[in-house]
Amino acid sequence: MTTTTYSPFELRIEATDKSPIPTRLRSVGEADGAGHKRPEAVMTTQNQEQHPTPTTKTVPPPSLALPLRPLTRTIPGYTQTLLLIPPAVRQARGSVRTTLACWCLDVLTDDAQLAVSELVTNALRHATQPPLPGDEPIRCQLTVERPERRAVRITVADPSPRGLVQRHPDIEAETGRGLTVLSEISADWGVETLPAGKRVWALLRVGRRGVEQ
């Protein structure tokens, strides 16, 4: 028996499958078995073509608050639209603190932050309701004005027509003191009815509760 030895360089492997290269894997200009050239490269698989990957449209969440805007009135002031969700209380406090610092009324900062916390919390508690699919988020309008050189008025308008009732909770109650606190720290406060909702305001003046400048 004769044995033929081939060197590694002389070995040739012929494919048993004589079918042309799959069209969807051929490169541009490469001929198939019939001599026709593929005009362009298509790298997708047949399965992907029949079942394309669905694309998900990402909807950005609504902004917590719009920037503070100056009022176009004779009284100096700023206004801001807030989304009525719990973080809005912190956002409102920061906006009031920044405004008072610009007016050099830092002496009122503590009381003003407490007042705006009560006003926004009231709107959050009474003006919101469980949203339905597709509902627009509920917002409130914060306004900080300087009607006098040593005073500021803080207003929060919300879309709820429900009025405010001042309660007299017992000593162990954890809620219901908001309006009582507002009465103690402000020179005056009030509620105004709007065509679509209400507006609650508090006036803070330097000298109230022993605060002097």
Summarize this entry quickly:
The chain is of the alpha+beta class and 213 residues long. The protein has four helices and six strands.
Lay out the secondary structure.
Layout: H1 46-50, E1 69-70, E2 77-83, H2 87-102, H3 109-126, E3 139-148, E4 151-158, H4 178-185, E5 188-194, E6 197-205
Antiparallel strand pairs: 1-2, 2-3, 3-4, 4-6, 5-6
Task: Quickly list its features.
213 residues; alpha+beta; six-stranded antiparallel sheet; 4 helices; 6 strands; globular
The main β sheet shows up as:
6 strands, antiparallel
Rg (C-alpha, Å): 36 Å
Give, in order, the helices and strands.
HEEHHEEHEE
The share of residues in helices is 10-25%
Give average pLDDT, whole number. 75
**Count of DSSP-assigned helices:** 4
Oligomer: single chain
Low-confidence stretches: 5-17, 21-28, 39-45, 171-176
Q: What structural class do helix, strand and pairing data support?
A: alpha+beta
Q: What portion of the residues fall into strands of 2 or more residues?
A: 15-25%
Shape: globular
Tally of DSSP β-strands = 6
The span between the termini is: 118 Å
Strand order of the largest sheet: 1-2-3-4-6-5
